[in-house]
Fold these 4 entries.
Entry 1:
Amino acid sequence: MKPNQSCFRKRLLAKEHLVGSFQKTPSMIIAEVLAGTDIDFMCIDAEHSPFDRSDIDACVMAYRAADKPSVVRTQSGAPEHILNALDCGATGIVVPHVDSTEKAQAVAMATRFGDKGRGYAGSTRAAHYAGRTVAQNIKNNNNNVLIAQIEDLAALDVIDDIASVEGIDCLFIGMMDLTVALGCNSPKDDPVVKAAERICNAANKANRRTGIFVADLNDTAYWRERGVSLFMLSSEHGFIKQGVKDLLSQTK
C-alpha cells in the first residue's frame, strides 16, 4: 500500500511492517526531498534537533503536500508541544520519556479533543483552515497516531500499566537511553535486550504496537519476531554520510 496520511494509523494498528526515519535538520527542502521517496513515514525530531514551531510547520507542510505521513517527536509531553505539532498537521506524535501511568494518561488526553484534552481550533492546517466541520475535525483527529517512547527505568516498573492506557497506539523502545540508564555500553548488551523484550511483551499483551530504533539493520529480523512492526531507522544525516562513503568507494 502506498504511504499516505489518512491510512497511517490503520496500517500501524494492522501491524503492517512500517519503516521510517528521523529528520534531524530543520529544512523544508530536505523534507520535500524525503517526501518524494517510498519510505513509509518520517519522524521530525524536535526533541534532539533544533526545530522550532516554524520549522515543524514548514516540514509538515512539505510532507503533507506529498501525502507522506509525518510524526513529530516532541520536545516533551507538555500539552503545548503536542498541540503545536498536531495543529501544524502532523500525522501523529512521538512523546519522549513516558515513564509513568499518569504521564501516559496525560499525553493520551492531550492528543485528543475533549474536556481537559487538546484545545480545539478550526482554523489550523490540520483543520484545512476552517474548511472542515467540527465533526470532521474530531474524526480526523482520531486518526492521529500517539506513540509513547519508553526509555527510562521507572517506565519498566509499570510497563504493563502504561501499555494498557487507552489512546496510546504504540510503545517506541528508546534503546540508546535504556543502554545508558542500565549502565551498559551497547544496545546489544543482555540487560538492554531483556528490557526491550519486556516492553515488547507488555505491548503484545495489551494489544499495542511496538516500535524500535536499531543501529544495526541486521537486528530488525530479531525484533520483528518479538512483535515489533514499526522501525525508525537512521536519519538524513546517515543517508548523507553513507552516500558520500558510497561515492568515494566507487570513485577512488
Entry 2:
Amino acid sequence: MCGDDMSYFLLASAIVLGGVSVACYVMLRRAFRAYRSAEESVRGLAVGIFGRLRRVEEAVEGIPCGGGVEEVLERVKRVEGEVKRLSEALSRFNAKIAEFEETLRSSSKAAVRAPARPVEAGGLTPTEARILRLLASEGPMTASQLGERVGRSREHVSRLLKKLFEAGLIERDVSEIPYRYSIRDEGRELVGS
C-alpha cells in the first residue's frame, strides 16, 4: 500500500469504528433507560402490593371473634375486595416483569458480528486455522471448549478468537455466558469447509 492508500484505509477504519462506537453507545443507553423505567415501575407496584397486603392483614385482625353477624360479613367483604385488588396488582406486577425480561432477551439475543475485513493469504496461524476447522465441523463452541480441543489455554484461545472475530471470520453469541463462537461463511471459505 502506498501512503495515500494507507491514509485512506486508516481514515475509513476510524470512521467505521466511530460509527460502531456510537451505535453501541445508543444501544446501551436505550437498555439503561428501559432498565430504569422497569425498575421504577416494579418499585411502584411492589409498594402498592405491600400496602394492600397490610390493609388485608389489618382487616383480618379487625374481624371480631364475637358480635354481630352483619359486622363480620361487612369486614369479610372488605377483605375480599382488598384481596381482589391485591390479585390485580400482582397480575400487573407479573406482566411488567415479563415485559422487562422480554426486553432484555430481545436486546441480547442477536449474535454480534464484527465488520468483515479481508485476511491476507497465509495470515492465519495453524492454531487459528484449526479453530476455524473445528467450528466448521462441530458447530458453536466456547473458548474453553476450543482450548481443550487445540491444546491451548482459554486465555490464548480467547485472544485468537478476538482476532478471528475482528477479521469477520467468526461470530459470537452474547446471549449467554460464556460466549459461544460459530464460523461465518467467510471463515468457511478461508479453510475450505
Entry 3:
Amino acid sequence: MPLLLLPLLALGLPESITPRTTSSQPRLLGVLFRDGLRSRTLLLWAINILSFLSVYFILLWVPALLHSQGVSSSRAILGTTIYGLGVAASPVLTAFVADLGLIIGTVCLLLTGLLEPQFSLLLLLLCGAGIGGGCQGGINSLSALTYPHPVRSTGAGWALGVGRIGTMAGPLLGGLLLGFGVRTQSIFIAASTTVFGAAALMAILGSLRRVSPRRDQSSA
C-alpha cells in the first residue's frame, strides 16, 4: 500500500517553503536541547512514550483481560479487533484534533474500568479507546510543528525512537499487573491514566508554542 500511494504523494504533497540546506553534516542529538528546544523535546518524547505504551498495553493484553472476566475467546478476539478498527479510523476522525482523540480514548478506557459494561457497550468503548490510540499519527506530525526545519528530521527520528520505550514497556507492564493479581477493571483505569497523561502533555506543548509564536513562524 505505501508503494501504491507513492505516486499520489509525489504529485500531491507540496514542497517545503523553507530553502533546502546545503549542509550535509549529520544533526546530532545535542541540537534538540539547544536554542530553547529542551522543554519541547522532553515533552515530545514523553508524549510518544505514553502513547505507544497505552497502544501496545491495550492491543496485546485486551484478549487476556477480557478472557479473565469470563468472556469467551472468540468475543475477546472480537473486542481486540474492534479496538484495532478504532485505531484505523482515528486518523480520519481526529486529523486536526489529536488531543481531542486522546481525551476520547481516556474517557472510554476509564468508563470500561468503572462501569463493568455489558459486551455490546464494551465493544463501543473499546472502539473509542482505539480512536485514542490511533492519534499516534497526529502525534508524529508534532515534530514538524515543534522543530525548525534544519533539525526537523532529527527531532522526528529521535521522538519515534524514544517512544519505542513505551512499545516495550506496555506489554511488560500488563504482564506485571496481571501477575500481581490486579483486577481487570483497575488495569483499564490505569491504562486511561497514560492516555490522559499524553493529552495533558500535548496541551502543555501547545502552550509553549503559543508563548513563542515568532520562533514557530520562522521555522514553518
Entry 4:
Amino acid sequence: MQLPLVLDVCCGPKGFWFDKNDARALFVDKRKERLEYEARGTFVMDIDPDIIASFDQLPFADNSFALVVFDPPHVQRSAAKGSVTKRYGFLTGEWRQMLRHGFAECFRVLRAEGVLVFKWGESDCPVSEILALTDQKPLFGQVSLRKPATHWVVFMK
C-alpha cells in the first residue's frame, strides 16, 4: 500500500485541517469516538482517524513520510471532564516520557529532509520544557499572542 506523504499522529477532531479528509494525509489517533458536550450550546464532534494507534508507538516503517504533524494533548488531568480534554485528550502519568517517545517516533517515520510541524499549548507546561524532550533542533516557530500561548514549531530531519 502506498502511504500518503503526510502523517498526523494525534489528529483528534482535525481542528486545524482545512480538509478533514485530505487524501494527502493519513490521520492517526489512539481513539475513535463521537463526542457530545455542552459549551455555550450542544456540540457534536467526531474523532475519526484512519488508523487507531498511539503516537509513541507508530505502526509505520522508518522514513515513511515527508511531513509529520505532532499536536499532542497539553493539559494535565486525571480524566477528560471539560470540553478541551474531551476533544484533544489529556496528559497523565509519565507524560514527559510519553512525549519523548512521541518525538522519537515522529522523527523515526519522517524521511530524510522531511518536516515535522509541532504544536504546543502552554496551559500547564512551557514549550521550552517540552522541546527539551527531543535532541532535534527546531528551525523556526510562531507563538500566538493569546494566553495561554500556542506555539507552532517546525523541525527538519
